[in-house]
Predict the structure.
Amino acid sequence: MPVFCRLYPSHGRDFPKNTKTEDSSHSWQFGVCCRTLHTGADRPEPSLAAAPDRLPFSRITQEDLAFFRKIVPGRAITDPDLLESSNVDWLKSVRGSSEVLLRPQTAEEVSQILKYCNSRNLAVTPQGGNTGLVGGSVPVYDEVILSTALMTNILTFDSISGILTCQAGCVLENLSLYLEERDYIMPLDLGAKGSCHIGGNVATNAGGLRLLRYGSLHGTVLGLEVVLADGKVLDCLATLRKDNTGYDLKQLFIGSEGTLGVITAVSVLCPRKPKSVNVVFLGCETFEHLLKTFQLCRGMLGEILSAYEFLDSECMQLLNMHLKLPNPISDCPFYVVIETSGSDPTHDGEKLHNFLEEAMTSSLVTDGTVATEDSKIKALWSMRERITEALTHDGFNYKYDISLPVERIYQLVTDMREHLGGRAKRVVGYGHVGDGNLHLNITSPAKDPALLAAIEPFIYEWTASCQGSISAEHGLGLKKRNYIYYSKPSQAVALMGNIKAMLDPKGILNPYKTLPDNLK
Amino acid sequence: MPVFCRLYPSHGRDFPKNTKTEDSSHSWQFGVCCRTLHTGADRPEPSLAAAPDRLPFSRITQEDLAFFRKIVPGRAITDPDLLESSNVDWLKSVRGSSEVLLRPQTAEEVSQILKYCNSRNLAVTPQGGNTGLVGGSVPVYDEVILSTALMTNILTFDSISGILTCQAGCVLENLSLYLEERDYIMPLDLGAKGSCHIGGNVATNAGGLRLLRYGSLHGTVLGLEVVLADGKVLDCLATLRKDNTGYDLKQLFIGSEGTLGVITAVSVLCPRKPKSVNVVFLGCETFEHLLKTFQLCRGMLGEILSAYEFLDSECMQLLNMHLKLPNPISDCPFYVVIETSGSDPTHDGEKLHNFLEEAMTSSLVTDGTVATEDSKIKALWSMRERITEALTHDGFNYKYDISLPVERIYQLVTDMREHLGGRAKRVVGYGHVGDGNLHLNITSPAKDPALLAAIEPFIYEWTASCQGSISAEHGLGLKKRNYIYYSKPSQAVALMGNIKAMLDPKGILNPYKTLPDNLK
């Protein structure tokens, strides 16, 4: 869960210009309109994650700008101050040097832009809310930035089926508010909801807080409108739950990080708004107990279980120390946040009571507290959601987003602690137990190449040995593209390359992202 | 919902040899090893659905058979009696003339077979339980039949996460039984469960009874192992709920009807087994009331609603007349079958009681009955599930499987009745309201080309005018391949053709299926 995005002001307009902070694990500074990389002193050691050389795309000319100004009048931004926040990711870890930001309002405008860029061999970086964590939504060099920020129309909503269609630039939180007034909710919820765009959510196959209950976007997205690299508009914007007429093309674009096409509209199946929400904060003596508690609550809470998140005692210390958040229960090695949501408050309360009684009686859980009112629910959730914020106060962060068989997820934290010994300041684990998704963070007083070398490739090798994923929900973007082979066989990566070549033969769409360098 | 498949004995071994029955809407008879079609008197008029000429694939030689016997010793079937049931679909509406049926046990064997067939330019028809309804799983000419029937191993089951991995030939019902012993269920259920294979379910993106609750296979299938046309084994058999490392390749194969690769193993996320199941049979005066009742029950039954199915009074008459099934309630224009499944029998009962009270008080529902015990549940379900059986006793059937915005689904039945006037014996509608999926059937005393000409393309044009799908869950197969343009724009179909050409350049996999003829 990218809860840290909550810290990020909308569109990041207040980022310091041309500076970088120390709280990023991998930072690059690329020159403006030059052929080679700037290699500032703070650039990390060359590694698999380093950016490749600029590919031979054309460079923006005055004629290009004139064309863009004709297509999107008043919405072709070249003012460096205005461009600044689109050139840098919200972690301030990746910075490009684009000279033009285009803000189309329609798929037709996107189509004209891409057709032109494809013919001119101009590279393009699609950008939604720019809340990604792997450098996928900002230019690496001077790519044209194509923003969905002005594509904010809700197109249709069917209150019988709960199917919403909207343009790609709708902010997730705005969609949630729109739906809640109509007794529905979005099937996904993220910390970044105040900034992220639904098009970006789909392009990155965002996970988040509701995945355990409502499943992934591969199941809930019913249709997409996508503009392909050559400007063709692919209309797969169905609003049907079932459609078995040929290959399900929209699936290709879900999670492709803008490298195969630009998503311009989305239709999505929305669940009914729950009438009752409860949150419980529990403590467990061991991770094994925490897993047994998960099993128990899947059985006893059944259809009303909507989140099962965990944090370890190191996380709790960070929350206490840096954010002055007191532990709501007694000290334990592990903590769990459980959320239920259902249609009947009495029934939900009874189920929860029975589950808690069983969990306490069987000693799976040593302490706990329950919240039913909004303010206490928020307070308990903050123990989970503000961990990343607390981490930023603990020094330099090395951040990992790992998917593992659920019974293995904490073993990686334990093994990493042992492996690093005294080299790390802190090794902390938290995440979505229900989804088998661990957020592993390692802190250090300052950036420490030797520590990084001890972490990687150890962490990727460990993950691969369990058939895990080195990116559960964050995607590969620029930062992790070359680690893909730890989670995918070369056969699969080669096929991805073929798909890319088929849909974007010139490679203009979001270059240097998702696919590894050696495919180029 | 292909409930009619329940009528079909496992593997259809008792089909009469070389005969065709009259209960199929489109029938073809193709010659054995000849270059031109047999044009028997009962072959329908040439139409979009008719089979194309045989493509220039190689013909099986003795050397080929010798090779196959080496690869799958004792499992390369050439006895015409044994081949018979694999050459014909269960509706007995499409018959091929393959001379060899291969029954591999491993992905490696499938790989060797496909590598060989690709090099020899031999066409291959993958076949699971052969329960499809659109002629997708049988050869059209002399294609090699590649059956998954002997690939029946369950590979792993994780009782914490509920993730099952198994070979493609596992029969759905066997998987259900295996899981129920472990307190889980499969996320899909079909009438054909006693015969259909999980690999075939995934290859056809089967819908069925649980889709309303657990969503489509695009969400619940977590991994696939697929053998490509050239024999390469694509290992995407992840057992992770989240994995954002590159494009989600497995999605391409879900619903591609064996035209892009042969699925050899599947991993799937399984829900917990419900502790409580209730079924209600209700009557409504109008379809509008039926839709309002759907809205009401989505709100009041919420998370325990697991099916919302309907039938019209014409269906009820067929059930009474042909199967002697009495109406369990008083006569109404429309009937609804609602199923709940949950984790607490008392809570579920209370929710259902409250919903029924509200539905009756508000006059949305005029009569109803509830079942909580197994035998009565089965009896009520049979009112929905045995409609197709009843239809077969009513004459020649013209069958359609249409997806529409939920508020439009019965309008098509009404319009069709008006459009056909006295030309049809009966026009009946039933299906999955919750999924917007209508099964529209038209009966006639005998096959009637004039009637067919009145139905088609009217039904497809009507569906297209509502942005519906001409195949909600049955797929396109042989029978509907050329109607694809009613539901997909040419841009999308062209891209499907490019994907086919990329993955299967010689077109050996399940030729004449899914994609329209004019792409070849």
